[in-house]
């Protein structure tokens, strides 16, 4: 292993965007009667999580992308940052680690409370070169009050970064952190919506002073001139605030990394890591990258891109969604009449859930060591009638195996938060057959033989008890 | 050496309630309606019944657990009574328990009764319910039409047939059953429909539209069985009808979890049919059987079953259906009573209702839908979904046939 293969730094970055893109014109069409002012932001589209996605499931997808090319790495820590974690008590990062099949020998933690929470964790992990690999994930599914500006500018999504020693794609140069109880917006525990102060004040007193100050201190610590920055990545939840900060800090305007506002929206806590991902993929070897995260203070981080190649991002324009009512229903902001079939009690037996933990979280089936048959669920006796061997099945996860449709339907009778309910028998490459739900599938898309990949999703909500259960679903393998 | 059930058990009497949305009737009323007909037909007193088997599937929706509801409704004199449940094959299971008890020599005269009161849910279709705490963690919340619709997609792909052609054959299956149901005064659905009605109907689970799905009904059916000797002694005036075969095959998870099933047929139906034909000494079902009542919960189910039961060659059912082979005036009438599709599907009663129709046809009591001559009839009763199910098959006929 040469030296470039064993550097402490950023080993990979990732971004996950839900497939659905809500047209902002569709949002505006419903509000124009009372909120003409939204017209100025009613451009393009924003990502929205499907009904079965939340910050946990999106974080899982970001982590899978993060670790896809580094399958042998076993992280010692996994941190999930979000202001929209589904569980207040129950470690959400633990759900993610279990879904990823990272085993039990790692530390998991949730961090929250600010749009820079993930970034603070990232900076901390990067600047202290301690042994082991660390995963920092950020995911947001923020819900904004209908007709608010936030409803337009927010996007749902996740991002991740892997830190440790190995074939680093970027290394630490300098950082600077500032604490400030500067309340530009807040959300009380248990409430759904943010309350925010006037944008002009947030820009002038917040970004232009606190952020520019952090940037100046960071550059001074590194002994780097602002003009040497090749990529400046800073989220801009206020229009063009990143351009204004760059100008004030003396950073060249052409280095400002696009926020993808028109196609995605602002991913909240995931946005700094998502923009880091964009910046690194665009950066030339040796380029200096400045990433800034603002929120109750500010973190500024200066990185240098190494010569390690990074795979190009697979571009996916997602699927246009023009139904604002569907979005309101997905986010629980309107209660529609779903009929009596939706009254089914989805109580989860937590004893059974623990007993079946790896089966459900990491889609773990069995592979018979006697005949090689892959089967799900794993069972005491092999399903192969020619074999029938007892207690020969070794754990085998189906989560990352390709599969194909054997049979399918789009069921309009069954209850689903997004009808029709689509499911079918699928066959995995190398064996294994499971009756599964399909996710993110268009009604006319299903056909026998269609290639599939697996995604971790919400299976059912238990609204009576405030619980949700997760399982894997099959989705068409598009553009792969 | 086991010799099977052929001609060891005779049907002494049968009864079947009217099926349908029996808003004004509870399970007790339905049981009494079926039982009164059967006991009169058998010509015995209720006190001569020595044991009973009681079939109810969704007991949480109607009578509750145990066989007590039967014993109570009929005021049975504290005889042995057993509740059986094997999903939609429950009715045939009740008869199987009763028939095997007679065949064993333990009893002379026993009762099998199935009942289901489904229309107390407040919505159409079968009730939604848990599949058990472990299964609920991962299995899709499949509806019955969704599960059976899988057959259509896999069948079309396997046999390289156009879905439009398959849908036409499925439509013919339903049109035929409605035509038969129209002639049956006890049937739930008695309207005639056209192929166009079927193809234009509301989609339920693609490609199954409304008319591809059977009715969900209230109803009860029962049989009183005894030995052929006792039957001849008690009813020397009429022909003795005996059981030739009564077989059950149960999925072991292979279809759902192993790769040797094509998704386009009912594996248990093939297994149960092979055993039933051996028991009944049938080597060519298409010519030796004069009528069949199969589990047409959905049009596609009936279609693929024609192949599984050996009535059609593999991949040929579309042609046979469209040629009218299974119409009431065809070579092998299927569902002359309207089937689940139109007679209706009160789950626990359905298996017994199928046998009731053969029994009526043999005795020449089928009214407007009477077939020329039935010596042997087959019923196929399916509980569960195509990939995981209980398949019960009976063959019933004239003594000696």
TrEMBL record, chain B:
Residues 266-393 form the Thiolase C-terminal domain. It comes from Aromatoleum toluolicum. Gene3D superfamilies: 3.40.47.10. This is Acetyl-CoA acetyltransferase. PANTHER family: ACETYL-COA C-ACETYLTRANSFERASE, NON-SPECIFIC LIPID-TRANSFER PROTEIN-LIKE 2. Coiled coil: none annotated. It comes from the Bacteria. Residues 22-227 form the Thiolase N-terminal domain.
């Amino acid at each position: 292993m040469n030296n470039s293969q064993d550097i402490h730094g950023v080993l990979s970055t990732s971004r996950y965007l839900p497939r659905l893109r809500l047209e902002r014109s569709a949002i505006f069409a419903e509000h124009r009667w009372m909120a003409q002012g939204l017209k100025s932001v009613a451009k393009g589209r924003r990502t929205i999580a499907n009904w079965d996605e939340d910050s946990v499931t999106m974080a899982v997808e970001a982590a899978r992308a993060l670790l896809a090319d580094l399958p042998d790495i076993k992280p010692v820590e996994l941190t999930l940052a979000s202001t929209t974690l589904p569980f207040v008590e129950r470690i959400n990062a633990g759900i993610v680690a279990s879904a990823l099949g990272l085993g039990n020998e790692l530390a998991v933690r949730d961090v929250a409370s600010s749009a820079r929470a993930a970034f603070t964790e990232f900076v901390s992990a990067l600047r202290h070169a301690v042994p082991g690999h660390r995963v920092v994930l950020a995911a947001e599914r923020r819900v904004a009050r209908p007709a608010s500006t936030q409803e337009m500018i927010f996007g749902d999504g996740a991002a991740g970064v892997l830190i440790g020693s190995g074939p680093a794609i970027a290394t630490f140069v300098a950082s600077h952190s500032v604490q400030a109880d500067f309340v530009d917006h807040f959300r009380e525990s248990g409430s759904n919506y943010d309350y925010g102060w006037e944008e002009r004040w947030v820009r002038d007193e917040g970004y232009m002073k606190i952020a520019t100050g952090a940037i100046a201190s960071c550059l001074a610590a590194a002994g780097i001139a602002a003009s040497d920055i090749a990529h400046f990545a800073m989220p801009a939840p206020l229009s063009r605030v990143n351009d204004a900060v760059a100008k004030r800090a003396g950073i060249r305007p052409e280095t400002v990394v696009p926020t993808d506002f028109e196609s995605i929206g602002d991913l909240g806590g995931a946005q700094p890591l998502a923009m880091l991902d964009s910046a690194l993929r665009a950066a030339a070897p040796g380029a200096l990258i400045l990433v800034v995260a603002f929120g109750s203070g500010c973190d500024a981080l200066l990185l240098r891109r190494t010569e390690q190649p990074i795979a190009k991002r697979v571009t996916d324009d997602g699927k246009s969604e023009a139904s604002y009512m569907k979005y309101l229903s997905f986010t629980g902001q309107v209660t529609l009449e779903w009929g009596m079939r939706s009254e089914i009690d989805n109580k989860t037996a937590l004893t059974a859930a623990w007993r079946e933990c790896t089966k459900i979280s990491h889609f773990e089936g069995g592979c018979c060591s006697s005949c090689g048959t892959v089967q799900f669920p794993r069972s005491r006796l092999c399903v192969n009638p020619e074999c029938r061997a007892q207690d020969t099945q070794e754990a085998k996860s189906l989560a990352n195996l390709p599969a194909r449709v054997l049979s399918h339907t789009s069921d309009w009778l069954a209850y689903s938060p997004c009808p029709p309910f689509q499911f079918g028998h699928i066959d995995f490459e190398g064996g294994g057959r499971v009756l599964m739900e399909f996710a993110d599938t268009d009604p006319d898309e299903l056909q026998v033989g269609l290639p599939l990949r697996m995604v971790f999703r919400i299976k059912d909500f238990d609204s009576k008890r405030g619980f949700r259960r997760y399982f894997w679903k099959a989705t068409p393998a598009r553009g792969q | 050496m086991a010799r099977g059930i052929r001609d060891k058990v005779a049907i002494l009497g049968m009864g079947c309630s009217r099926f349908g949305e029996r808003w004004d009737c509870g399970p007790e009323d339905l049981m009494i309606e079926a039982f009164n007909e059967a006991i009169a037909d058998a010509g015995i007193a209720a006190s001569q019944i020595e044991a009973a088997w009681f079939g109810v599937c969704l007991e949480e929706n109607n009578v509750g657990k145990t066989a007590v509801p039967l014993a109570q409704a009929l005021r049975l004199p504290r005889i042995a009574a057993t509740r059986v449940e094997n999903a939609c094959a429950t009715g045939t299971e009740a008869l199987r328990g009763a028939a095997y008890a007679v065949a064993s020599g333990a009893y002379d005269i026993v009762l099998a009764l199935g009942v289901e009161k489904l229309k107390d849910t407040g919505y159409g279709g079968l009730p939604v319910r848990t599949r058990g705490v472990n299964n609920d963690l991962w299995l899709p919340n499949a509806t019955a039409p969704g599960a059976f619709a899988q057959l259509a997609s896999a069948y079309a792909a396997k046999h390289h047939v156009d879905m439009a052609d398959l849908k036409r054959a499925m439509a013919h299956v339903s049109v035929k059953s409605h035509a038969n149901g129209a002639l049956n005064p006890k049937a739930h659905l008695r309207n005639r429909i056209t192929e166009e009605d079927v193809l234009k109907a509301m989609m339920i689970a693609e490609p199954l539209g409304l008319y591809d799905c059977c009715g969900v009904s209230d109803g009860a059916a029962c049989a009183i069985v005894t030995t052929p000797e006792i039957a001849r002694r008690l009813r020397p005036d009429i022909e003795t009808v005996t059981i030739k075969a009564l077989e059950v095959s149960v999925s072991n998870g292979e279809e759902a979890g192993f790769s040797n099933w094509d998704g386009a047929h009912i594996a248990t139906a093939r297994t149960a049919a092979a055993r039933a034909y051996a028991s009944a000494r049938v080597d060519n079902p298409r010519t030796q059987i004069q009528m069949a009542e199969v589990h047409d919960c959905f049009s596609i189910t009936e279609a693929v079953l024609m192949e599984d039961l050996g009535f059609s060659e593999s991949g040929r059912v579309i042609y046979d259906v469209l040629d009218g082979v299974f119409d009431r005036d065809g070579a092998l009438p299927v569902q002359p009573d309207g089937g689940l599709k139109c007679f209706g599907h009160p789950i626990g009663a359905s298996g017994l209702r199928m046998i009731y129709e053969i029994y009526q046809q043999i005795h020449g009591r089928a009214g407007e839908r009477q077939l020329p001559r039935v010596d042997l009839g087959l019923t196929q009763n399916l509980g569960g979904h195509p990939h995981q199910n209980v398949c019960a098959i009976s063959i019933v006929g004239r003594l000696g046939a």
